[in-house]
Amino acid sequence: MPPSKQEFKDLLANDRADLVIAELAAITKPLADQHYHNQVTLLSNRLTANKREHNLGKISSQEYNLEKNRINHALLALIDSLPQGAAASGPEKEKGFWKTMTYVALVAGILGSFAEVLGFIDLVPGKPEDSLQLTVYVQDTEGKPIPALQNTGHVIVRFDNDLRDPVIGENGRTNLGEIPAKFRGQEIEVVLVAEGYEAILPGKKYVMDGEPVYFTVRRDNSLGIIQGIVKDRSGENFLAGALVMIDQDTTTLTDDLGRFRLQLPPEKQRERYLLTVKKEGFKTRTDYYLPKTGALELRLEK
Q: Is 114 helix (H, G, I), strand (E, B) or coil?
């Protein structure tokens, strides 16, 4: 018997989002309306990607916890919006619920087949005229999906007080459903949330006309900016003329105030750099530098 809504929430409180997702996947799969199961699948992908990125050291603990909290909030909203009877409330009720849902799914499938033949897709249950669908394709300047953003990046679309924050799926595709019909013909804005990438046309408006939105993005310069300051061990003296080497192939010298700053070209940009600092009379120091963390302070010992 599937958990009740309260039991789902208790699992989340005990940091077991993995168990919640597994149970939700099992009970939402048979539903005639695939919206719930699709949302569970997306959240499962986000949870897996978040853990993987954290284990690989690609994101900080703060970023990991922030994404985990977002996933938990999304799960709570999904649990509260489950159809009446989807969560357990008694064996007999559960049995009757699944029997009913099986019948509904069968009827919906039959109607769907006839509708496709006759061209009456909008009459099929599950595709009500009072709601819209939106598909967003996130792509590069050549119109190709970006593998690095799959299951990690997000797009944000606001419909009045309804803020959607879906993860970017396979082939750069993101689906948003159950959008109120009042937004038909209206302009919307799509915002990208992805480390190291930016929209080609930020602030561009797209019309809700039933056609997919092709959202073009590119790498920003944030991953290529490396900056810092070099001091002696006490931190009281700036070390001018210190040699700073990035990944053994790019070098620069600190200025009179011990500062250095580099802007690497796109082909050399990555999520982490190895910095080696040398100065005559001081011990060589090596550190890792993560972009977007601000200026790095390095102190050298004699």
A: helix
Between the alpha carbon of residue 202 and those of residues 87, 190, 197, 206, the distances in Å are 42, 8, 12, 11
pLDDT tier at 59, thresholds 50, 70, 90: confident
Indicate the residue type of 167: V
End residue of a domain, out of 89, 109, 127: 127
Pair 67, 103 in one domain: yes
Are the C-beta atoms of residues 213 and 281 closer than 8 Å to each other? Answer: no
Do the beta carbons of residue 43 and residue 75 sit within 8 Å? yes
35: nearest Cα among 159, 171, 176: 176
What would you measure as the largest C-alpha separation in the chain, in angstroms?
A: 84
DSSP-derived letter for residue 144 is -
Domain ranges, residue 272: 223-300
Closest CA to 198 of 170, 224, 169: 224
Provide the pLDDT confidence category of residue 122 given band limits of 50, 70 and 90. Answer: very low
CATH code at position 165: 2.60.40.10
Q: For residue range 131-164, list pLDDT tens digits in order.
A: 888 999 999 988 899 998 988 889 999 888 788 8
